[in-house]
Write a structure and sequence with these properties.
Layout lengths: L1 E11 L6 E7 L21 E3 L14 E2 L2 E2 L1 H4 L16 E3 L2 E4 H10 L10 E4 L7 H13 L4 E5 L15 E5 L5 H8 L4 H13 L3 E7 L7 H11 L7 E7 L5 H6 L13 H13 L3 E2 L3
Parallel strand pairs: 2-8, 8-9, 9-10, 10-11, 11-12, 12-13
Antiparallel strand pairs: 1-2, 1-7, 3-6, 4-5
The structure holds iron/sulfur cluster.
The site of iron/sulfur cluster has 12 residues, from α1.
């Protein structure tokens, strides 16, 4: 069983407790225009231009012009022979396929670095797109006694079956209104909201994350929608976090040949504080990690 992995590396505290090996998995079923990891969206991996001119002769289909990819040609290319050409230059694919066992060995070897309660975090892309392999990886980590966390958009109907394998579950709740969510990200999040109901009831360590994006979810209607959705839920074992929009991913959108269309999306600190205070006033625990 294999997993398609964008990249992996250690970080401290952003994606769970302690020092963690964070594994980014390839493929996402949303199209959030503010995504900071756009190379992780396409399930089969994204071709990225790394800056040097790409030699035309590595492509037999006329997909390279003046040292750049012709995306209209590449998008329809099935076998991507350029990637295995010995003269390959200036081009990379965003992901690699690795056996679950290889990743487990790597996690085992990283164990000395899991200090301060650290472990392994799966994020994306969207990890649940590779559900069976992710389940196998989490099961293997659990058997080895390694702390597990996963960040997900919550859209997989079987997400609750992974709860017993996760020490920390991070669910992105981007909007309380499924139709508004669909308009901007391409899909309704009705399943996410249902899975959050399950998580409030059944997961002992839930972090609900909301990126605040101006013009999408930073107005009073959205805030009242979040409050209404969380009202009446047993959130004693849950924490909530609001993140401010940032444009860190803009360069990567260019490298992936995709237009970065976010404009005026910044949310002032006062707005974040207003959302935080409102949830605290409703009795929820709000954190910044
Ligand atoms: S992906 Fe296909 S069309 Fe594009 S450069 Fe590579 S071989 Fe050519």
């Amino acid at each position: 069983m294999q997993l398609s992995v964008v990249r992996r590396g250690f970080n401290y505290g952003q994606d769970g407790p302690g020092n963690r090996l964070v594994i980014h998995l390839q493929g996402c079923n949303l199209r959030c225009p503010w995504c900071s990891n756009p190379e992780g969206i396409a399930p089969r991996g994204t071709l990225m231009e790394t800056g040097k001119p790409i030699p035309a002769h590595i492509c037999p289909y006329g997909g390279i012009l003046d040292g750049r990819l012709k995306r209209s040609v590449c998008d329809a290319c099935v076998d991507r022979p350029c990637l295995s050409h010995p003269d390959r230059l200036g081009i990379a694919v965003s992901c690699a396929r690795l056996p679950v066992e290889t990743l487990l060995t790597e996690c085992e070897q990283g164990r000395p670095l899991f200090f301060d309660g650290g472990g392994v975090t799966l994020t994306g892309g969207e990890p649940t797109l590779q559900f069976e392999a992710v389940e196998a990886l989490l099961g293997g980590l659990r058997k080895r006694g390694i702390d597990t966390a996963m960040e997900t958009n919550g859209l997989h109907a079987l997400l609750p079956s992974l709860f017993p394998l996760l020490d920390l579950l991070i669910v992105d709740c981007k909007h309380p209104n499924p139709e508004k969510h669909r308009e901007v990200t391409g899909r309704s999040n009705a399943v996410t909201l249902r899975n959050l109901d399950q998580a409030f009831a059944n997961h002992p360590n839930l972090l609900v994350r909301t990126p605040l994006i101006h013009g999408f979810n930073d107005d009073d209607a959205a805030l009242e929608g979040f409050r209404a959705f969380y009202r009446g839920k047993d959130t004693r074992r849950a924490r909530f976090e609001f993140l401010r929009y940032h444009a860190f991913g803009a360069v990567k959108w260019q490298q992936c040949g995709m237009p970065y269309e976010m404009r005026d999306a910044d949310v002032p600190e006062e707005t974040r504080e207003r959302f935080e205070q409102a949830l605290r006033a409703d009795g929820h625990t709000v954190v910044r990690t």
